[in-house]
Amino acid sequence: MARYQVGIRTEARILEAARELLGELGLDGTTLKAICERAGVRVGSFYNLFDSKETVVLRVVAEAIAAVDPDPAHLGTETLNELVEAYIAFVTRDPTVARIYVQIAVSGALNSGDLHHRIQRHHEQRADRFRAAMQRDDPALAAGEATERTEILLATLNGLAFRAALDSEFDFARHARAVTG
Amino acid sequence: MARYQVGIRTEARILEAARELLGELGLDGTTLKAICERAGVRVGSFYNLFDSKETVVLRVVAEAIAAVDPDPAHLGTETLNELVEAYIAFVTRDPTVARIYVQIAVSGALNSGDLHHRIQRHHEQRADRFRAAMQRDDPALAAGEATERTEILLATLNGLAFRAALDSEFDFARHARAVTG
DNA sequence: TTCAATTTTGATTGTACACTCTAATTTGAG
DNA sequence: CTCAAATTAGAGTGTACAATCAAAATTGAA
């Protein structure tokens, strides 16, 4: 190990370049060449720091999701409303990254089993947090009913996000808040 | 014009091959080469009949959607329930094609403006039919309220379809019918 | 200061892809 | 049967892509 400072900075530049390109050009426009050019790095250096292009893209998406997490420490104190607001923040702050998440999820569904499982697990974890928050809000709510409501709520939010991806005029936040309460 | 029979049959073979491959391998796996091999046709013949690969893929998707249309003649007599059932039929009959529709919609959103507009128009037309059916079911329903409910209903159906694309075990039909009431 | 480990370079590989073009062949209407 | 139009063949074009590799340069701990 024993990373050198210069390498750490290069890694950060590559991630920043990828983040910018994904936002500006989307997944297809974010080629290895484009990332390296913007980061001011040769291709060989890229592969010294990352295993693949996929690695970088997934890190950018994961960081965008983590950036809006209302409970990064997993203390289990978040409310349903906070979770919905986090979802809204993710979609409205960086709509392109949100779209890329959907794109990866859908195209990866058939191929590359590993990616598929990671996305499925991510969805399940999010569903668990929604369900737990829902039951904290209303302790009388039965577990099965909470699971069911969570499934529908998340589907609606995902569907609205999809709608927002197609139409930039669409007021995602307003509709998302409407379904919550 | 004046098509020859052999050409018409070849066209049908190409469409069938594309349909099969899209179902088996998804969008990425459905290459021009693969389509031509399965259809027993040389690449040159393909381009004599179709402008591009995109043309074929879009025709397959459009035909899959049209196949479940409860009111192909647009008589305006369909019920909300029929529309939901048509949606369910589309997703459950050929899940891969449904996923490809999402894939095209999401990836095309940034690029190729034409495709983007076509998909947006398709969504709007569907929303109109849902809203009209909703008001036929309940004539007392205000227009604004119907628009709002349609937006939410379609979002939920799309989100559930997305969920089904990620998890083949997911019972899409049951959840879809649950939200309709 | 030394020097092993890390980082950078840049030329290169290999591949997969959609699409084109011309000439030969086949079709079917009159 | 004729022949123009439709269809087919198949080699070829061009391009964009992710990834590899060996050698040179640099870093920074001891």
What does it look like?
The structure is a homodimer of 181-residue chains. With 181 residues, chain A is mainly α. Chain A has nine helices and no strands. In chain A, helix 1 (5-29) crosses helix 4, helix 6 (95-107) crosses helix 8 and helix 8 (143-166) runs antiparallel to helix 9. The first copy, chain A, is elongated, with a radius of gyration of 18 Å. The termini of chain A are far apart. Chain A binds chain B through residues 25-29, 96, 99, 102-103, 105-107, 109-111, 116, 119-120, 123, 148, 151-152, 154-160, 162-163, 165-167, 175, 178-179, and chain B through 25-29, 96, 99, 102-103, 105-107, 109-111, 116, 119-120, 123, 148, 151-152, 154-160, 162-163, 165-167, 175, 178-179. The structure holds a DNA duplex (30 and 30 nucleotides).
Q: What labels would you give this structure?
A:
homodimer; 0% strand; DNA-binding; mainly alpha; 181 residues
Summarize the structure.
Chain A is mainly alpha-helical and 181 residues long.
Describe how the helices and strands are arranged.
The structure is a homodimer of 181-residue chains.
Chain A: H1 5-29, H2 32-39, H3 43-49, H4 53-66, H5 80-93, H6 95-107, H7 113-137, H8 143-166, H9 172-180
Helix pairs in contact in A: 1-2, 1-4, 1-6, 5-6, 5-9, 6-8, 7-8, 8-9
The first copy, chain A, binds a DNA duplex (30 and 30 nucleotides) through residues 2-7, 10, 31-33, 41-49, 52-53.
